[in-house]
Design goal:
The chain is mainly beta. The chain has 2 domains: about 1-95, Immunoglobulin-like, CATH 2.60.40; about 105-410, Beta-galactosidase, Chain A, domain 5 (Distorted Sandwich). It contains 2 helices and 31 strands. The protein has helices at about 300-305, 390-400, and strands at about 1-5, 10, 20-25, 35-40, 50-55, 65, 70, 75-80, 90-95, 105-110, 115-120, 120-125, 145-150, 170-175, 180, 185, 195-205, 210-225, 230-245, 250-260, 265-270, 280, 290-295, 310, 310-315, 325-330, 340-345, 355-360, 370, 375-385, 410. The strands form 7 sheets. It has an 8-stranded antiparallel β-sheet. A hairpin with a 6-residue loop joins strand 5 and strand 6 (about 65).
């Protein structure tokens, strides 16, 4: 059975102070939850200083709906839609003035990184400054280009960096462990080897508004060639977005990674149990006795490692009023090897303590060759929550993610 999000556009030309540009209808995705929706703006003159582009719900009153314009090669208008409701019709309209509705999701940048907040509560920080390990630890463990902290809605910090057992772990990050470049093995994950690392390369954009705030950054996967000379093996663009949500008890974070290689011979990402995708080193509070895992295939923490899943709930004890917090990790159906293989630390791992490490690992079972002249994209969503999340709730979030405009969900 196939479900698709249907956008019916009817273009009009009405030259007036308030100009109707298009009308469309959204039909809910069966079984999906609330989610951001994008309307393509092909054929619409959105690139003008004669007023702003606004969205209105059709019908009596025509109330304005918070919406956010994304320009670029594929311009889109984003807004929030509840798939549990009924079909709705909307109007895209150019209105007088250029003052958009006040942003609910905002960005603040410092010398260390960029923090995105929703309703004035911090959700996550991307660290662009190079962070050195504790005094006395080899400086090879320094790194930039990672997410930490990631906060739950109640303010619980869920990520951890530079734990003494793995100084190369950095919150939410995604280096590749076993790679081959011209017959030479290069490890970007285990920094102590001194073979390679990942570096922040610069911001490409940053936006904020009533529907989402986010940024795109360049990250350079560099290896050390002769005489320690750095050479770029892969260029990666991280597109990170935090969405507004009608449910204040969750935060929704999207992470899209697009890779390409400048190497004439390309690079082989060798099959291994760690590498790429999206990795998560959890708070030091979580261990085998207070942390759990549940996958879309019904597997627990004891069974999940090496298996494949569409989504995975990772949650544990917290000091917030709910007593527990967690992250629902979603893998997009367009990803390589979807449903995606995972690395989940076993209950007796890490010296028997059972600390939590989770990763969607697209090269867990098969090599992946990247060739020059191509882009390779991986898409993930994190739904951060306090309390408990049921499998039914997780499935609703995944359907909303998997059936984004232009993508067909196959049940």
């Amino acid at each position: 059975m196939k479900y698709s999000l249907i956008l019916i556009l009817t273009f009009t030309l009405q030259w007036a102070a308030a100009q109707d540009l298009a009308r469309f209808t959204v039909r809910p995705i069966p079984g999906a939850g609330p989610a951001p929706v994008a309307v393509p703006l092909d054929g619409i003159q959105y690139n003008t200083d004669q007023g702003r582009i606004a969205l209105f719900e059709a019908g009596p009153g025509q109330k304005e709906v918070p919406a956010q314009l994304e320009t670029g090669p594929q311009a889109r208008l984003w807004f929030l839609f509840d798939h549990s409701g009924t079909e709705k019709s909307y109007i895209i309209r150019r209105v007088e003035g250029n003052s958009a509705p006040r942003g609910a999701v905002a960005i603040r940048q410092t010398e260390q990184g960029t923090t995105i907040s929703r309703q004035e509560k911090p959700v996550m920080t991307y660290v662009h400054a190079e962070v050195f390990p504790p005094e006395g630890v080899d400086a090879k463990f320094r790194r930039s280009a990672f997410i930490h902290p990631l906060w739950s809605p109640e303010g619980e910090v869920l990520t951890r960096i530079q734990p003494p057992d793995h100084y190369h772990h950095y919150g939410i990050w995604n280096p590749w462990t076993k790679t081959t470049i011209s017959g030479r093995e290069v490890d970007f994950w285990n920094l102590y080897k001194g073979q390679g690392t990942v570096k922040f390369g610069g911001y490409l954009n940053a936006v904020q508004g009533p529907v989402y705030a986010g940024f795109a950054v360049l990250q350079e996967h560099v290896f050390f060639a002769e005489r320690g000379r750095e050479k770029v093996a892969m260029n990666e663009v991280w597109d990170v977005r935090v969405w507004e949500s009608a449910d204040k008890a969750i935060s929704v974070v999207d992470l899209t990674s697009t890779l390409n290689t400048p190497l004439p011979e390309g690079i082989m990402l060798d099959a291994y149990r760690y590498g790429g995708g999206i990795g998560f080193r959890a708070t030091e509070k979580w261990h085998k006795d207070n942390c759990s895992v549940l996958t879309s295939e019904g597997k627990s923490r004891a069974e999940a490692d090496g298996s494949n899943a569409r989504w995975c709930i990772v949650e544990g004890e917290s000091s917030g009023k709910s007593g527990r917090s967690g992250i629902l990790f979603l893998s997009h159906p367009s990803n390589r090897m979807h449903p995606e293989p995972m690395r989940v630390w076993p209950l007796d791992g890490n010296g028997g303590r059972g600390d939590m490490f989770f990763e969607f690992c697209p090269i867990r079972h098969n090599d992946w060759q990247l060739l020059p002249g191509n882009n390779y994209t991986l898409k993930y969503r994190m739904v951060v929550f306090d309390g408990k999340m049921t499998p039914e709730e997780a499935e609703k979030h995944w359907k909303a993610f998997a059936t984004a405009p232009g993508v067909v969900f196959v049940n």
